[in-house]
Automatic annotation (TrEMBL):
Signal peptide: none annotated. Coiled coil: none annotated. This is DNA primase. The lineage of its organism: Bacteria, Bacillati, Bacillota, Clostridia, Eubacteriales. Residues 35-267 form the DNA ligase D polymerase domain. It comes from the Bacteria.
Length: 296
């Protein structure tokens, strides 16, 4: 039986991991009325999935100790120094108890940060472009990936956008960014009225920005199942292709719990990792003459 905060009442492991919580009933999300204990309960539920993605990576936490209407703090290092590692339930819940609502991770591991084992493409609509535009661009990118025989996972950003994730054999971040940049160029050449690589928002127009620069080693991306500091407490949610009709801002805590109950964890890679360098070589995707932006 589920407890009031989403925990299994018989789960002694969760109870043992529960940190000391100051102001447990402080409302962190005023619109849905979610308290700190509600947020802790949610993270206890999704911990088995989120922790797999966080393991071995230097996490950036975004903290709102007084709720989403209060001041936000970025934090990349614990008080004792070094990177923030969130590798077990106690460490996850301790950060949440301290006001962390969002968890962001790089694409490389802490021991080899320049070698990425994920490649991503972030579809970010520039208003007034909306979710319809995101879906249209996503269909084009899926067609390209299908043509190249590249599988992918899909998740919402938890705000306005959509993330394609590709599990790859470890590869230098510069190579990953160059290849994803070339794929992004191909999309823009196919649907220039829908997609753009313009970095300045004022130059993007009513189009979807293809942010392949998120593959840089200094960048982080919100983890799957992380809450976002939005009015409705939306979540960066792994989805099936057939779920694409639901916009990113429609994935609330209630919907995500129901979706997990029906479909289980959808952010689990099946099969071998993609040899992205080999794919690029076979299909001539190395744009060597094009200068890629430096992330250093």
């Amino acid at each position: 039986m589920r407890g009031i905060y989403g925990m299994q009442e018989s789960d002694s492991g969760v109870k043992a991991a529960w940190p000391k919580v100051s102001h447990p009933y402080r409302i962190l999300y005023p619109k849905p009325g979610l308290t700190r204990m509600d947020v802790l309960g949610y993270y206890a539920e999704v911990a088995p999935y989120l922790l797999r993605l966080a393991k071995g990576r230097a996490i950036t936490v975004k903290r709102w100790p007084h709720g989403v209407d209060g001041t936000m703090f970025y934090q990349k290092h614990p008080p004792e120094g070094g990177p923030i590692l969130v590798e077990d339930l106690p460490s996850l819940l301790t950060w949440v108890a301290q006001g962390a609502l969002e968890f962001h991770a790089p694409l490389g591991h802490v021991d080899q940060p320049l070698q990425h084992d994920w490649a991503i493409l972030d579809l970010d609509p520039n208003p007034p472009a909306g979710w319809e535009s995101v879906m249209a661009v996503a269909r084009v990118f899926r067609s390209l990936l299908d043509l190249l025989e590249i599988p992918f996972l899909l998740k919402t950003s938890g705000q306005r956008g959509l993330h394609f994730y590709i599990a790859i054999e470890p590869l230098d971040h510069r190579e990953v960014m160059a290849i994803m940049g070339r794929l992004s160029e191909m999309i823009c050449q196919t649907v220039p009225e829908l997609a753009t690589l313009e970095r300045l928002k004022r130059d993007r127009g009513n189009r979807v920005y293809l942010d392949y620069l998120q593959n840089g080693y200094q960048r982080t991306t919100v983890l799957a199942y992380s809450l976002r500091a939005t009015p409705n407490a939306t979540i960066s949610t792994p989805i099936r292709w057939e779920d694409l009709a639901t916009p990113a801002d429609g994935w609330t805590m209630e919907r995500v719990r129901a979706h997990l109950g029906r479909h289980g964890n959808l952010f689990e890679w099946q099969g071998p990792r993609v040899d992205l360098e080999g794919v690029a070589r076979r299909h001539g995707l190395r744009a060597q003459e094009r200068r890629m932006p430096s992330d250093r």
